Amino acid sequence: MGNLFGKKKQTRVTEQDKAVLQLKQQRDKLRQYQKRINLRLEKERLLAKQLLKDGKRDKALLLLKKKRYQDQLLDKTENQIGNLERLVQDIEFAQVETKVIQGLKIGNECLKKMHEVMSVEEVERIMDETQDAIEYQRQIDDMLAGSFTQEDEDAVLAELEAITQGDVELPEVPEDELPEVPEATEEKPERDGPRKNPEREMLAA
Amino acid sequence: MSFEWPWQYNFPPFFTLQPNADTRQKQLAAWCSLALSYCRHHKLYTLDVMEAQESPVFNNKKIERKLSMEAIQVVFEQLSKKGNLEWLDKNKSRCLVMWRRPEEWGKLIYQWISKNGMVNSVFTLYELANGDDTEGEEFHSLEEWMLLRSLQALQTDGKAEIITMDDGKGVKFF
User: Fold this and answer.
1) ipTM of the complex, rounded to two decimals
2) Which family does the record claim for this protein (chain B) (predicted)?
3) Which of A24, A26, A93 to mutate to test the interface with B (most CBs of B within 10 A)?
4) Are A37 and A74 found together in one domain?
5) Are A24 and B161 inside 8 Å of each other by CB?
6) What is the pLDDT of residue A90?
7) Does A21 contact B170 at a Cβ distance shorter than 8 Å?
8) Residue A107: domain span
């Protein structure tokens, strides 16, 4: 139908697929042949039994000879099927392998292209430049830090000292004795707790 | 598992086409579903009208009633209108029954394929319908025309491609 407009549809079936199909078709034929022989064997076995019952030993023997021959045929076909299936599997595995190699190839090419973008000289140059820039930045930092005189530095340190000292200062300990807490009002501290806290904080400040 | 007959099957008037249009319509619908489920149960894909008359579906020996030839034709025509049946010849003596649409069969087959990791593989039609691997699957021993149609349905979805070779056909799943 696709040919109607002179445009052939893109087929995804490869030559290998066709080969596999052919092999499988051969296998199917052998399988059918096997089934046929198996059925015939069964029939002949029954017939031989019947002949023995009827006392026709010679005929039964002849039949069994024929059966034996067919048994051998069956073995041969089994072997052939095995061969065909092995071949099919080999082809399928080879297909998988080619896919793997294709994947590796694409990955390799991609890696190569990316390496082209970043040559060793380029990297060296960039690293050098970065180093230079860092150096430059340090110079600027030094210059800026240098604008402070020793006096300033001392003042800053002193201020820092003062701040840390201030932190350690503790509030005065209250001298009056605590009132005794009656046991019945055990829950009270819970209520008082949050109210006391801000007072303490204020003292600290 | 034996086939479960609907209650109408033992109801003698069911075997005579009813004159009342409304009743007749209901009766035909019942016949259609009976015929389809019978075919589904026995996995029948082709029917012969002459043989159908003798089959237990249209011939209830217990109550000694059978559907007349003309009535069977009417039922079949009804099925054909619904798309479940296709005539094989002009005389309308043989037909294909589709109690499952090709798309549904295709879906079943594709499910099996992907479940077994066989996407991207090639199969012969014989292998799919009669192979040892598909033993026990619903589509085992599916008739070839039906198999081909379900594969064609998959092909239009881009999930399969049918390969035609000198001796026999094959299919590759994607």
Assistant:
1) 0.71
2) Belongs to the VPS25 family.
3) A24
4) yes
5) no
6) 92
7) yes
8) 12-117
Question: Chain B: nearest CA to A8, how far in angstroms?
Answer: 14
- The answer to whether residue B135 neighbours chain A at the CB level (below 8 Å) is no
Residue of B132, B129, B154 lying closest to B143 (CA atoms):
B129
* CATH code of domain B102-173: 1.10.10.10
pLDDT score at B82:
86
How many angstroms separate the first and last alpha carbons of chain B? Answer: 36
**Which pLDDT score is estimated for A200?**
54
How many CB atoms neighbour CB B134 within 10 A?
19
Per-residue pLDDT tens digits for B88-143: 888 888 888 888 888 888 999 999 989 988 888 888 888 888 888 888 888 888 88
Mean per-residue pLDDT, A66-95? 91
Average pLDDT over residues A46-50: 89
B169 CA to chain A: closest CA distance, Å?
9
Q: B170: which chain A residues are within 8 Å (Cβ-Cβ)?
A: 21, 24-25
| DSSP class per residue in A67-95 | HHHHHHHHHHHHHHHHHHHHHHHHHHHHH
Report the topology of domain B7-97: Arc Repressor Mutant, subunit A (1.10.10)
Question: Is some CB atom of chain B closer than 8 A to the CB atom of A18?
Answer: yes
Chains A–B, number of C-beta pairs less than 8 Å apart: 38
* Longest Cα–Cα distance in chain A: 135
